[in-house]
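Long-time lurker, finally posting.

We've been working with Annexin (Hypocrea atroviridis) and I want a structural starting point before designing mutants. I don't trust myself to interpret raw outputs, so I'm hoping someone here can both generate the structure tokens and explain anything notable. Sequence follows.
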Amino acid sequence: MSYQGYGQQPYGQPPQGYGQYPPPQQGQYPPQQGHYPPPQGQYPPQQGQYPPPQQGGYYQQPPPGQYPPQQAPYGQPPPQQYGAPPPHSPQPYGAPPGQYGAPPPQQGGYYGAPPPAPYGAPPAQAAPPTPPSLGYGAPQIIQWDGTQDAQALRGAMKGFGTDEKVLINILSRKDPLQIEVLRTAFERQFKRSLVEDIKKETRSWFEYGLVQLARGPLMADVHNLYDAMSGPGTKEIVLNDILLSRSNADLHAIKSAYQRTFRRSLESDVKGELSFKTERMFLIVLAANRAEDSAPVIPQQVEQDVMSIYKATEGKVGTDEILVCSIFANRNDNQIRAIAHTYKQKFNRSLESVIDGEFSGHMKEALLFQLLHAVDKYMHAAMLLEDSMAGLGTKDHLLISRVVRFHWDRQELANVKGAYQQRYKKSLTSRIRGETSGDYRTLMVACVGE
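Top reply, 14 upvotes:
Generated this for you. Predicted structure of Annexin:
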């Protein structure tokens, strides 16, 4: 897929037509790092270079007083340069997303890294592991007391009637660590389950959204996976959303929580729900042997992967699906992006079109998910949100789970909203308003920060 890029004002100058996109310039590609629009570099890169790791996105500074919070003033020194040490910790929840183009919590290795050391040389140090997403790591003690909010939630659901506004205002504004503290405080103080009380006091998609929030990101993933594989049929799209393109740390957390909650392994449930080759693909994913985000892109490995994919697809009669699935499951986003770029250069055909023509069904959808996420994760997220609202009827369970998933990381959400605006020429909020109603609408709009 291709996007038309945009030009950039000289550094330190006010944006052209504040709040609007400047006119496009021929041949530029949406940024993978730095400010948006891109301040330097064009796509495709020069021969022998790879597209840079995705670090920035589409976040545009809003007028004062609007969400997301304002960034640092335009014209300040540029953000941390690519290749500098990664930030020490993620942005606090609700904090300003920071100068546009600041790196997300995960950092990729540099492109064009040197090949492996000669035979007999000391082994290279393993890439440091990608840290778990907020809410997926070990329990943390935070300086926040959930007692007052727990009391407000109980008051909103006690007696006759429910104060929906209180539920929305409290639950939509907490980060994953605060949600955990709040849920524990509610259960300790009132000897009741917050999730079960919400289920009793609310209905329909409004209930579904509140429950997703109250469970927090990890337990929402666990329950959504279980529900997707319960009853007749399997909601494969839910498995894609939750399991694909995740860090090893997050996958280990999901598997552990699933086992703890349902006393059964996630792998065994997946085995019983998917067809043979797709089952093997997801078991490779669940093995959590993906290259860490800090692992470099090595040109020799990229060339080898490109030729392996070609020989497994276009270069033979039939398709070696499992070989392609193994490459996509075990490479990080930077490496997959380099593979896609090199494949296009070498064979003058996009890797997306190869997958579309050589695969079918759930496996095709899963491979395209991994590819598009690696090429531009913010645009891919915007497309997932639009897909949940496009066509006849809204796929409400997908819209809710995706909105809630992206809302946990406000930096990511700001970029997804910018990507959505660029692609569909309307705001994500206005699109959601048109597809939802009542308290359900109010909750979704609150989650996207309006």
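Before you design anything, note these points.
The domain at 294-375 is CATH 1.10.220.10 (Annexin V; domain 1).
Residues 180 and 216 are 7 Å apart (CA to CA).
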